[in-house]
Specification:
This protein is of the alpha/beta class. The protein is built from nine helices and 15 strands. It has two domains: 151 residues, Quinone Oxidoreductase, Chain A, domain 1 (Alpha-Beta Complex), CATH 3.90.180; 148 residues, NAD(P)-binding Rossmann-like Domain (Rossmann fold). Helix 2 crosses helix 3 and helix 5 packs parallel to helix 6. The structure holds NADP nicotinamide-adenine-dinucleotide phosphate (NAP). NADP nicotinamide-adenine-dinucleotide phosphate (NAP) binds next to helix 2 and helix 3.
Length: 329
């Protein structure tokens, strides 16, 4: 069995290219006491990884040039020298972008016994679903009856936001690029969807939400944030989850409606998923229930083989995914 990992070869300037990545053997070493060896089965690629490719201080350390990349992954323990984990256990962890992960047992979480496929721990029961859940219900304090706008609504986090908001009795407007994605967002229960590639988002949102919005779940930034500011009702709450429009260094779109923050008393709250780890039990219970009852549906765009990882990652910025982007090993 091969044991390769994608390494950061050089720091990207703007949109990354394949030249910034290198697939190299990791080499084998015997396990130390307390360590496990895991054969990865699923790798997650996520937009935040782009920020870690820059040499800047942030809430997670920057990737080092020449070192293996890291990210969410699910795999099976194939060797253990740790009491809590046995051969055959399925675990989720952060040593992705590689075929085999070796590390201390504390770096690996045994998947809870729930009737979901293993890849769900990277999607609706993982970072993706948790970000949607806590961002909507805690950061934005969204509640029954609210009118919610969510951008990148056909993506991993966005599609979870649409479904959680519907499960909680909210009116939901999503935005996505292209008719096919918009049709899927509608299928998930959204009351209206704006195809931002077919019409300017400011006007599109005004038409879709003639009474305005109470909550904005921002995945995009730029002109989508501006549209939300333009449509915000008094005391609207914005959960600032991500601003993918700017991750590759594009000049930020002018926020022509930013002064509405004052008159409409808008609250903007940035958040990171891990801020809410103390409440993760509640999230597992709610999301587990919704998945079991079919109220929340999962969709994945799956790329095959470790060779596909960088391109799967780059496709996040080209809209190449519907639902959660995953790499299957
Ligand atoms: P995703 O939405 O599954 O994938 C990215 C999607 O963004 C693409 O499919 C594309 O969809 C859209 N997009 C890309 N570039 C765009 C642009 N310039 N303008 C408009 N839309 C664009 O990714 P995700 O993992 O669910 O992440 C969504 C957002 O949440 C990201 O901003 C991410 O950084 C953030 N996030 C934050 C946290 C946190 O803790 N705060 C955790 C996880 C994720 P279209 O085809 O519709 O354009």
């Amino acid at each position: 069995m091969t044991n390769r990992a994608w390494h950061l070869k050089s720091r990207p300037q703007g949109m990354p290219t394949m030249d910034n990545f290198e697939l190299k053997p990791l080499g084998d070493r015997p396990l130390a006491e307390g360590e496990v060896r895991v054969r990865n089965a699923w790798l997650s690629v996520d937009p935040y990884m782009r920020g870690r490719m820059n040499d800047v201080k942030s809430y997670v350390p920057a990737f080092e040039v020449g070192a293996p990349l890291q990210g969410g992954a699910v795999g099976k323990v194939i060797e253990s020298r740790a009491p809590g984990l046995a051969e055959g256990d399925t675990v989720f962890h952060m040593l992705g972008w590689r075929e085999e992960a070796v590390g201390p047992a504390e770096a690996f979480n045994k998947v809870p016994p729930m009737p979901v496929p293993n890849e769900a721990w990277l999607g609706n029961l993982g970072l993706t679903g948790g970000t949607a859940y806590f961002g909507l219900l805690r950061a934005a304090q969204a509640k029954e009856g609210d009118i919610v706008f969510v951008s990148a609504a056909a993506g991993a986090v966005g599609s979870a936001v649409v479904q959680i908001a519907k499960a909680k009795g909210m009116t939901v407007i999503g935005s996505a690029g292209g008719a096919e994605k918009c049709a899927w967002v509608k299928e998930l229960g959204a009351d209206a969807v704006v195809d931002y590639k077919a019409e300017p988002i400011v006007q599109g949102l005004q038409k879709a939400a003639p009474k305005g919005i109470d909550v904005y779940f921002d995945n995009v930034g730029g002109d989508h944030l501006d549209a939300a500011l333009a449509s915000a009702r008094n005391n609207a709450r914005f959960a600032i989850c991500g601003m993918i429009d700017g991750y590759n260094g594009a000049p930020p779109a002018a926020l022509r409606y930013i002064m509405r923050i004052i008159a409409a008393r808008i609250m903007l709250k940035g958040f990171i998923y891990t801020d809410y780890m103390g409440e993760v039990g509640e999230f597992y219970r709610d999301m587990g229930g919704w998945l079991a009852s079919g109220q929340v549906k999962s969709r994945e765009t799956v790329r095959d083989g470790i060779e596909a990882a960088p391109d799967a990652f780059l496709d996040l910025f080209r809209g190449g995914n519907t639902g959660k982007m995953l790499v299957k090993l």
